[in-house]
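Appendix B. One record, verbatim.
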Amino acid sequence: MRRSLAVAMVVLMAGISLAGCFLRRPLVQRAALAMVDGRPTAVVAACGRSSVDVAVHQDNGDYAGNLYEWSVTVTPPSPAKDIEVELFGAERPGWDLTTEQERIVGSGQSSFKVIPLTSFDEGHHYKLTAGDYGPEGSSAPAVAFTTDDLPTIGDGKVLSAVDNNHTKIVSRESFVRDRCG
């Protein structure tokens, strides 16, 4: 009886341990796209974090050796529930622009050039990220959009990622509440 109980406990503990690997919290996209005073702006659910990384890049499906990207690390002046990051905005206190100059990443055939993105142009696809990162390069879904999406985002609303290929418009308030709790 004791041996059966001990074996059952070992099996139960192993099962719980394995289930933890498969039942992780999903990775969360902490940025959504808004239009603030007519300018594309990332609304980031900072949720009290000391800093956040925000990036937007052109995503037409073929990089052809070039990645057009604008990115910044923002350190809020105090713990904030959410912050606004004007895309392509000038550097501000607490901002560290990380794509100000062209640079080569990698070496040999796997290298590519990062080119600063300075505007959104018609006919191109873009992705906005500021998500949690998981193991082995996995990350939260990005906010995919085109210039046609920008005028559809109303006041107090944001374009939020459903998954890597789908978005939805929700209130800014509900976006931040869902991300921060």
